[in-house]
Design a protein that fits this description.
Number of domains: 1
CATH topology: Maf protein
Shape: globular
Order of helices and strands: EHEHEHEEEEHH
Oligomer: single chain
Structural class: alpha/beta
Strand order of the largest sheet: 2-1-3-4-5-6-7
CATH class: Alpha Beta
Helix content: 25-40%
Bound molecules: inosine 5'-triphosphate
CATH architecture: Alpha-Beta Complex
């Protein structure tokens, strides 16, 4: 069994990563130490590298970081890497997005979630990177209780539902996180 430390302080990411992982040979465990490195990067990848390396430094073990966010085309990619810092609470972040999108018609409300994962070894060397995306639209009001973050306003036209209205099992099959983690797991199975 390969143990990999998750370089995150977000419990939703831990829950989703464990639900997506079907490998019998890999176990993801959350970092036990206080973990809040400053995310000074300008891209998802740079921030994922910062988090994975910081966790390796603390634990001396294989570490996986997930840096992710919502990118809205009409807002030139915002909130992007600032998704978790766009306002003070999840509700306030959603409200800010809805306010900024208020006058934007449906066809122009395209957006995607992006997730970049970086795996480091116990010395902090980068072993592998993967990026996953999921494409949809920004709804005009929040709907649904599942998931976290911006899920209540992220509409998937093929389901006619927001991600927060979908079963979590479905989210974990199609999400940006699943699209990054599945090839990452394949790489780990083949290379570690
Ligand atoms: P760590 O850095 O400790 O991992 P974080 O939540 O600060 O936790 P990020 O810097 O990667 O992580 O910010 C990700 C933000 O993007 C997250 O807080 C949500 O606001 C949003 N986000 C990412 N994945 C999401 C998802 O699956 N559903 C909804 N919102 C998501």
């Amino acid at each position: 069994m390969k143990k990999i430390i998750l370089a995150t302080s977000n419990p939703h990411k831990l829950e989703e990563i464990n639900a997506i992982n079907k490998s019998k040979n890999i176990k993801f465990e959350v970092i036990k130490e206080k973990f809040n490195p400053e995310e000074t990067g300008m891209t998802f990848e740079e921030n994922a590298v910062i988090k994975a390396k910081a966790a390796s430094k603390i634990t001396g073990q294989y570490c996986l970081a997930d840096d992710s966010g919502l990118c809205i085309d009409a807002l030139e990619g915002a909130p992007g890497i600032y998704s978790s810092r766009y306002a003070d609470s999840p509700e306030a972040r959603i409200n800010r997005v809805l306010k900024e999108m208020k006058s934007v018609p449906y066809d122009w409300r395209t957006a995607h979630f992006e997730c970049t994962m970086v795996l480091t070894d116990g010395e902090g060397n980068i072993l592998h990177k993967e990026t996953g995306k999921i494409f949809g639209y920004i709804d005009d009001c929040p709907k649904g209780k599942n998931g976290f973050g911006y899920d209540p306003v992220f509409l998937l036209s093929e389901y006619d539902k927001t991600i927060a209205e979908l079963d979590e099992e479905i989210k974990n099959q199609i999400s940006h996180r699943a699209n990054a983690l599945n090839p990452m797991i394949k790489w780990i199975e083949e290379n570690l």
